């Protein structure tokens, strides 16, 4: 009869005092997978053999393997044993099965990173949330603008991510567009003039149209919004508010320098201009200057979403009002505009922030963004790529039409956004390329090659003719 000890190729490092032994073993499996000690496809020791090696009951090891299986880390094979799952291979298979579907590179979402253990920890946040909250969390309405715990987590996120430490309560809203709608409906009235970059987030333009606001564009250059152009607009049009995305601007991905932020703040003070600062991408930027809310805290509504830097499905946006402005008004506006965030989404964001998981997610997104930028540079080396941005602003040669280019690409199942979608005035001959839409680098490279081929051969684009 074989010696069980010979079958023990891996023994977890656990302490019997660290809670239930089976959970400690399951955690050790997860940790060693993340550390590379346990490899995809590797067989775990037989349950009885590991029980003997640890001097514990067989059922404890059985429960540990079952707990790891529930997390998707291992799988049992009848008559063969328990094996570490090859999660990357599963993802590739799923991606291959979906490849016949059109690739919508118009959706600007964070790229999916390759860290299955981190994904599992993100899902574990639901279990942690359920353990921390009672029945009332599920069976009662929550206060518009977020609970005290969620608002505190938002304040912590703004402080840790952007250094915003001024006093004042943060409120939660359903996404950037919901926040902008709520703020605009609170501080503006129909017919008011607002200004923004000449290329801007289409969601803001939709809000302005819905509220019957007059929009005036501000000229941009390679550094982003031009402060001199802002001063000219303020002098000639007397706008009430400025909407701007100073960090990783959408769609150009430019980031305003510290000097420009300071100049914009001083101009806003001179003309008593309220600033709505969209900082949806700010947490991804590794070397951006402080937000406008730092330079002009008394004038700035700071809006920071989790959709681009944590997970699009959360739809959680933190809103920091200007200094001296209370939160009751914005809470009423959030309620009236249907901008209340789901307490489950808010609670999950709070759990990720308070546990320290949130910055790890952001770091993983940033790392994957760098890999995708390298792929983009390899396929389209002449294009300009802004650091930390997972969207690329791509001007099209004058002899080629961006609209015709996109129609041709749509015929082969690739969707992109034309410059006119962002333009306040005359549309530029350009497109925005979202690097996060593809499921992996292989898929992204194939799509970018199709784009490069269409740019190199404008007369040979594939058209869908019916």
Describe this structure in words.
With 466 residues, this protein is α/β, with parallel strands linked by helices. It has three domains: 4-85, Orthogonal Bundle (Arc Repressor Mutant, subunit A); 96-120 and 358-460, Aspartate Aminotransferase, domain 1 (Alpha-Beta Complex), CATH 3.90.1150; 141-355, Type I PLP-dependent aspartate aminotransferase-like (Major domain) (Aspartate Aminotransferase, domain 2), CATH 3.40.640. Helices cover 44% and strands 13% of the residues. The protein contains 17 helices and 16 strands. A hairpin with a 3-residue loop joins strand 1 and strand 2. The protein is globular, with a radius of gyration of 26 Å. The N and C termini lie far apart (72 Å). The model is unreliable at 461-466 (pLDDT under 50).
């Amino acid at each position: 009869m074989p010696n069980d000890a010979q079958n023990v190729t891996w023994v977890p490092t656990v302490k019997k005092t660290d809670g239930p032994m089976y959970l400690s073993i399951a955690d050790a499996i997860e940790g060693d997978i993340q550390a590379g000690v346990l490899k995809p496809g590797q067989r775990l020791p037989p349950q009885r053999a590991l029980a003997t090696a640890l001097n514990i009951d067989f059922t404890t090891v059985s429960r540990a393997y079952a707990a790891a299986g529930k997390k998707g880390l291992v799988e049992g094979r009848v008559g063969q044993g328990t094996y570490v799952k090859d999660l990357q291979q599963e993802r590739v298979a799923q991606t291959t099965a979906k490849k016949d579907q059109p690739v919508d590179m118009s959706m600007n979402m964070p790229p999916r990173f390759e860290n299955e253990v981190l994904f599992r920890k993100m899902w574990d946040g639901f279990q942690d949330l359920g353990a921390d909250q009672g029945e009332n969390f599920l069976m009662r309405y929550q206060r518009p603008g977020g609970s005290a715990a969620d608002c505190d987590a938002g304040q912590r996120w703004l402080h840790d991510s952007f250094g915003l430490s001024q006093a004042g309560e943060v409120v939660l809203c359903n996404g950037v567009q919901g926040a902008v709608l709520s703020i605009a409906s609170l501080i503006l009235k129909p017919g008011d003039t607002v200004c923004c970059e000449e290329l801007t987030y289409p969601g803001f333009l939709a809000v302005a149209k819905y509220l019957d606001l007059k929009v005036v564009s501000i000229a941009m250059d390679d550094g982003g919004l031009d402060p001199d152009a802002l001063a000219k607009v303020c002098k000639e049009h007397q706008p009430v508010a400025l909407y701007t995305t100073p960090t990783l601007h959408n769609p150009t991905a430019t980031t305003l320098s510290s000097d420009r932020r300071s100049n914009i703040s001083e101009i806003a003070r001179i003309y008593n201009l309220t600033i709505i600062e969209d900082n949806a991408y700010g947490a991804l930027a590794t070397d951006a200057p402080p937000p406008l809310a730092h330079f002009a805290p008394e004038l700035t509504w700071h809006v920071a979403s989790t959709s681009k830097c944590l997970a699009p499905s959360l739809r959680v946006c933190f809103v920091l009002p200007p200094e001296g402005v209370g939160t009751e008004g914005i809470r009423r506006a959030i309620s009236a505009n249907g901008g209340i965030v789901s307490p489950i989404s808010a609670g999950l964001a709070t759990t990720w922030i308070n546990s320290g998981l949130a910055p790890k997610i952001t770091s993983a997104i940033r790392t994957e963004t760098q890999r995708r930028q390298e792929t983009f540079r390899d396929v389209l080396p002449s294009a300009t790529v802004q650091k930390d941005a997972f969207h690329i602003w791509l001007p099209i040669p004058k002899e080629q039409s961006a609209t015709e280019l996109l129609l041709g690409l749509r015929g082969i199942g690739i969707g992109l956004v034309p410059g006119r979608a962002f333009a306040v005035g005359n549309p530029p001959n350009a497109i925005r390329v979202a690097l996060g839409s593809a499921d992996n680098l292989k898929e992204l490279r194939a799509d970018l090659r199709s784009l490069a081929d269409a740019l190199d051969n404008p007369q040979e684009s594939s058209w869908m003719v019916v």
